[in-house]
Structure formats: C-alpha cells, structure tokens
Write a structure and sequence with these properties.
Oligomer: single chain
Helix content: 25-40%
Shape: globular
Distance between the termini: 21 Å
Order of helices and strands: HHEEEEHEHHEEE
Length: 231
C-alpha cells in the first residue's frame, strides 16, 4: 500500500509537469533526438513508469535502446547508479527529468560531467526540473518535507534554473532553454499556480575529444538513493 501511495503521489501530484509524463512531448523528443534507427538514450533517474512508458508504438524497438540508470526492485523503488554506467558507452541523448530535485549540487555536478563523457559528439542532454528561484517551488518544497511525515520519500531540493545551466556549461555542454518542451499541468497548489518544469538542452561539440572537468563521485550519493514514481 505504501509503494502504491508513493507512486500515485509522485506521478499525479509531484511530477505532473515532467516532460516524461506527457505522451505528446515524449513523441516530439523522440522525433527530434532519436529519429535514427540506431540512436540510443540514457535516462538518468528514469523508471519504467516514466519516459519509456509513454513511448508510442510507432517507434518499434526504441525501448530496448534506452538505458534506465536505475536498479529496480519492487515496483516503486529505484536506485540511481549513474556512476556504474560503463565509461565506454556512448548515447545520442541523455535525459534527466524530475531527478535533480533529489540531488545535492555536488551530485548534480558529477552526474553532468559523467553524462558529458557518455554523450556522443554532437549529442544532447535534456534536463527538466522545477525552478528553485520561483516562490511557488519554495512552497511546494515545504509541502514535500511535510509529506515525509506520512510516507517515505527522498529529501527534495529546489535548485534554480540559472545554477543548473551554469553547472551544465561547466561540464562542457553548450546550453539553451527549450520552452517548447515545457508541460503545464496543475501541481499540488491547484488554486495557486501550476509548478512548471523548465527544460534545458545541452549539446556536446561535434569535434570534442578528451575529458572536461572530471570530478570524483559523491561519497553519499548517488550510491544508492531511492527514487519513487515516474521520471
């Protein structure tokens, strides 16, 4: 019962505005970034309740070409282990939807640096999260901490869009906002404001070789941290 409650809360309330929760947005992402038949993707923090669940049938075996960076046990319980992804793997697209809110800045920095090394030259990373600079996000953050009194979930952090963009750039990506991929649905504060996720796109240079800004894995996370719900 507890797992079901956590799944429902994460999907229906907490992460309603994630691009991975909207079938039309998922379809558009696939058509832009994964249109080639041999294209591959890395979904950091992704689960089988998220992006891959919304894949339209027309894209055939694409689900088999998307790696979820989780070790899943029982339904609703997942572990992020981006550090365990082999360094010789390469992906056309890296996705990080509704996941940074569970990470410290040190973990985010390590995750982006690792993602950049795993991204093919000319490949992209898509990042979507609530903007911690917005007051509505502060309020929802407080509500999530209150929710921890009733069922288990990870601590929730509110990082600003500007800070996340700066960390992406430091990791070696060229960054642009992608408001066309933003999904606007009602969040927990139904009568106040929908909690929108911003979307950033980082592109790795076609000519890039070698490593940029390699740091050590965080000691406390991401090994292992549990994540519930859709991503």
């Amino acid at each position: 019962m507890k797992n079901k409650l956590s799944d429902w809360a994460s999907w229906q309330i907490w992460n309603a505005n994630s691009p991975s929760s909207d079938p039309e947005t998922v379809k558009r992402i696939v058509r832009e970034f994964l249109k080639n038949k041999d294209a591959t993707a890395l979904d950091i923090g992704g689960t089988k309740l998220g992006f891959v669940r919304e894949l339209p049938g027309e894209f055939g075996d694409l689900e088999q070409r998307i790696k979820l960076v989780n070790v899943s046990g029982k339904k609703g319980i997942y572990r992020r282990r981006v550090r365990d992804v082999p360094e010789d793997d390469r992906y056309d697209l890296v996705m990080c939807f509704g996941t940074l809110m569970y990470m410290s800045k040190k973990e985010i920095r390590y995750t982006f640096e690792k993602a950049r090394r795993l991204t093919k030259p000319g490949g992209s990373i898509l990042v979507a999260d609530p903007d911690g600079a917005q007051p509505v996000v502060w309020l929802e953050t407080a509500m999530k901490w209150v929710a921890k009194l009733f069922w288990w979930t990870l601590p929730w952090r509110a990082h600003s869009k500007q800070k996340i963009a700066a960390i992406l750039e430091d990791a070696g990506y060229t960054v642009k906002e992608r408001p066309d991929y933003e999904v606007e649905r009602k969040g927990l504060l139904l009568s106040v404001s929908p909690m929108r996720y911003y979307v950033l796109c980082g592109v790795k240079s076609v000519s890039e070789t070698g490593n940029v800004g390699v740091s050590s894995p965080p000691t406390a996370a991401p090994a292992p941290a549990r994540v519930t719900g859709r991503r």
